[in-house]
Design brief:
Elements (H helix, E strand, L loop, with lengths): L1 H11 L8 H19 L4 H20 E5 L14 E5 L14 E5 L8 E9 L3 E4 L6 E3 L2 E2 L17 E4 L4 E5 L21 E2 L3 E10 L5 E2 L3
Antiparallel strand pairs: 1-2, 2-11, 3-4, 3-11, 4-9, 5-6, 5-8, 6-7, 9-10, 11-12
InterPro entries: LexA/Signal_pep-like_sf, Pept_S26A_signal_pept_1, Peptidase_S26
Membrane topology: Single-pass type II membrane protein
Subcellular location: Cell membrane; Membrane
Length: 219
C-alpha cells in the first residue's frame, strides 16, 4: 500500500520543467506584458505607445543634452537663461569641430570649473591673427566675416593676438567679445588658451526655451 500510494502521488505531481533560463524568462515576459495590457486603457496599443515613448526618451538622452546659457558672453544669439539643445554625437564617429561651430565644453583645467559655451574660431593648424587693417580677425590669411553673430558695435577683439592652434585643440571666442572670457584671456597660461577637442561635450543646435526665442543656433 505504501508503494502504491507513493506511485499515485508521484503520478499526479507536476513534471519538472524542461525549459531553460531564456525560455522561462521569455514566458515570464509574455505573461507580464499580457497582464499589463489587460490593465491599460486601450490595451496593446497603449502599451506600444508607452514603449515607443520610453525608447524615444532614452535615445534623446543619449543624443541631446539641455544646457542653460549662464552669461551674456554669447549675445546677441544666445541670451542669459536660454535653454539650448546640445548635439552630443555631432563629433563622434570621426567628425571634428569646425570653424564657426558653437560648442559646449567642460572647461575644467582650461577655462575653470564647469561647462561653457563659445564659438570655434580656429582649429588645429590654423593661424589666427587679430586684427587686419580693417579690424577683422584673420584665419590663415583670410578675413573672417562675423557680422552675422558678433554683438553690435563690438570689435572682433580689443586685444591683439597672433597664434597658431596646435593639432587636437581649438581657439574659442564668445560673440559678445567685450564681455567674454575666452581663449584670448589665457594666451599666457598653460595650454596657451587652447581647448583640447576631447573636452567638447557637443554642438549647440537649437534654442528650445523660451518659446519666443525658438530657433537654430547660428553656426
Amino acid at each position: 500500500m505504501d508503494t502504491e500510494a507513493h506511485h499515485a502521488e508521484r503520478d499526479h505531481s507536476r513534471p519538472p520543467s524542461s525549459e531553460g533560463p531564456a525560455a522561462q524568462w521569455s514566458r515570464f515576459a509574455r505573461m507580464s506584458a499580457a497582464a499589463l495590457t489587460g490593465r491599460l486603457p486601450g490595451g496593446g496599443r497603449t502599451l506600444a505607445v508607452l514603449l515607443c515613448v520610453l525608447l524615444l526618451l532614452s535615445a534623446t538622452a543619449f543624443v541631446l543634452q539641455p544646457f542653460e546659457i549662464p552669461s551674456r558672453s554669447m549675445e546677441p544669439g544666445l541670451r542669459v537663461g536660454d535653454r539650448v539643445l546640445v548635439n552630443k554625437v555631432a563629433y563622434r564617429f570621426g567628425a571634428e569641430p569646425q570653424r564657426g561651430d558653437v560648442v559646449v565644453f567642460d572647461g575644467t583645467g582650461y577655462f575653470g570649473g564647469g561647462d561653457y559655451v563659445k564659438r570655434v574660431v580656429g582649429v588645429g593648424g590654423d593661424h589666427v591673427v587679430c586684427c587686419d587693417s580693417q579690424g577683422r580677425i584673420e584665419v590663415n590669411g583670410e578675413a573672417v566675416d562675423e557680422r552675422g553673430y558678433l554683438y553690435p558695435k563690438d570689435a572682433p577683439s580689443r586685444a591683439p593676438f597672433d597664434v597658431t592652434v596646435p593639432d587636437g585643440t581649438l581657439f574659442l571666442l564668445g560673440d559678445h567679445r567685450s564681455l567674454s572670457s575666452d581663449s584670448r584671456d589665457r594666451l599666457g597660461a598653460p595650454g596657451g588658451g587652447m581647448l583640447p577637442v576631447g573636452a567638447v561635450i557637443g554642438r549647440a543646435e537649437w534654442i528650445a526655451w523660451p518659446a519666443g526665442h525658438w530657433g537654430g543656433v547660428h553656426g
